Records
---
Amino acid sequence: MNSRYFTEEHELFRQSLKDFLQKEVVPHIEKWEKTGHIERFIWKKFGDMGFFGIAYPEAYGGMDLDLFYTVILLEELQKVNSGGFAAAIWAHAYLAMTHVNKEGNHDIKQNYLTPSITGDKIGCLCITEPFGGSDVAGMRTTAVKKGDTYVINGSKT
């Protein structure tokens, strides 16, 4: 192998993913693009193959693999010629699940991260602000705990 970054194991993963996408995804792309709806079965199949668990801890059903597996996943998703499908998978695996993994306590991870890795739950990120769009790192809204409640200050678009 003449790659500075990708090992033989990476390339085996790439081929397995390519084969999976050709068999399980490509035959449905036209329908999904036309209807604007990705059928539920594919999420579970992605989970069964371990593709949602690439970057997540083994303790929650992930594989805790290096960043290059994620690079391969994102590269190959782009090759199926469906921006909608690729964006949906990416949003689930790297927008929603990343925040649950980073900020969630053990119970939250058990209830949401684990079933997201298996494809039994689908995550999303639903947030926007006037000055930051959907950049959660640039949020200006604050939530301060006062007693048993939170005081929220900010604005919504």
---
Amino acid sequence: LFEQWSSNSKRDLLLLRQIAKNGSSVPKFRYETRQFPSLDVCADVNEDHLELQIVRVVNAKLPSGWQPSDGNIFVKYDFAFPHESHQSGKTKLVAGTNSPEFNEKILLSIKRQSKQLMRVIRRNCLKFEVYQKGGFLRSDRLLGTADCKLPILEQKAHLHESVDLMEGRRAAGGKIEFMIRIREPLGEKKLNLQSEKWLILET
């Protein structure tokens, strides 16, 4: 079936090129919806990596009396795997705004067959802390925290979210946007049906 679709598409493409070359009118066409089996896979990600991309912080609430242009912001992250040695770090510093763009990619190590990893995925969060950099004799100021729940990675290989920054249980103001990719979902492999709009020439 797929070979036939491919052959027909190549034939139609050659015909359209010839029509365009000759300046002829476009033949009648129609659309139909076709379904394809597909696997959720990020083929460019190593199977022993979790790729975290911290995209940006939006409208972080700065200390009273500060202007958005006074922002001097960075983000810390913490991934609770392995238990005995969390993988943590921080982004570069972005100054002059309370809505900094980072677009930083971090490769975190995972072991897909590890029971400990699955416990972390099901019970723990990937944690973020957003800071205003301190000045001379001033310590860094915590602007808000955010948690990324991970159980969805049992069904999906890609996660893209924007999460409210919190101060305890209260909204602190602002959001953090991030993406997570793994090679393929950590649970059982499942074929999904993907629907696509398909153009057919009526020749």
---
Amino acid sequence: MTLSTDDLHELIRLLEQHPEWRAELRRLVLTEELLGLPGLTRELAGIVREMARSQQQGLERLERVEVTQARLAEALTTLAEAQRRTEERLDALTVRVDALAARLDALAVRMDELAEAQRHTEERLQQLTARVDALAARVDELAEAQRRTEERLEQLATQVSVLADTVQRMADDLGRLKGWSLEERARRKAHALFRSLIRRPRLVSEEQFAQLVDDAQDQGTLSPKEADRLIEADVVVRGQQPDDRSEVYLIAEVSWGIGVKDVQRARERATLARRIGLPAQPVVVGTWVTPEAERLIQHDGTLVLLIRPDDWAA
């Protein structure tokens, strides 16, 4: 039976409509070998793929081996360099150890010498210790003697302090007595004493001067405290100025030794006397003047009358 082209096209259409008929058609048309060819092809493809994977893995392993080999070669080179440096350091250390050994030998000899010197030092220390012990005992004896001496000195210091206080009180009393004596003699001999400063000197009695001060206080010219300070003037002498014979009052501060306070008191009282209308002049009278008082006198114009102690005997 001969198939036409139309029959072939119809067969193809039917196979397209019925795919399950294709396998049956292949079984009838093809031999057993041809029918098994697709499966064999698939099996071969799987084997080829497996061989390709194995080959790829082999290549990858080969690359890793080559990398490892390169690293090992580099490591061997590094180890060789390190070994070379180690040997150089060992050579240097050997030289240093030899030098240290020589120094240790020298130190051993020196230690023996020091040990001998230490023995001699210990012997000397023992001798010095014995001497120090003897000196310590002597120092203890001296300390005890010093303590007794200090006790006696404290007793003497107490006695000297008492004597010093007594002498100071006596000196103060003597100074006051001298001052009072000078003040009294200045009143008694005012005419003879103050002739060197003014003409016709006459002593102003305490009653007369007190009357002048009281009148000034009553008039309000002086306050009570100012009146008290003015009335305490040691000596007041009335007379005439040598040049123009004008009236003058000498407000005198009398002291055995003239100090700054004496000058200040004389100046203050003369100022108060001028406030109540008296032509007053400050005067200090004594046997000597301190340097400080002398400098003050040179600047404020206070008169000074120095008398030798012998001049007061009469």
---
Amino acid sequence: MSAWAWAGAGCYVAAFAIVLAFALAYLTRRRFMPYHRAAADQSWDSLSPRLRLLLLALMRALGAAWLACVAGGALLLNEWVLTRPGFAALALFQAYCLFAFGPQVAIAAGLRRATGARTPVAAAAAALALSLLGFALCALALRAAQ
């Protein structure tokens, strides 16, 4: 594998590492995140016990979904990009990344616009940007190999 391909794969790994960090945070938190507090304009302690339980369940469901997204990304990166290199496979993997990372950026930005909460737009955008950089570098590697 060329240096371009390794660099591209590294960008993809870094993008999924960002999502993994959020997955683990959402799976292990016992309260909502500081930006949730700002968006809701309520403290954790002011919520009813049932609402706290519901919010933690939703956070854990989202964390589990992100964990599945990371696992799927790792499998696809290994299978499509590293094991069977080709532009069609790379494009399909990048489409997966866009579907995985794009909504995170849009939702975080929308919540920030609507509430003023300091949502993690930059982290979500970084994951998306890293995937696009990974795509460009892997595409360069494929072109150089021809």
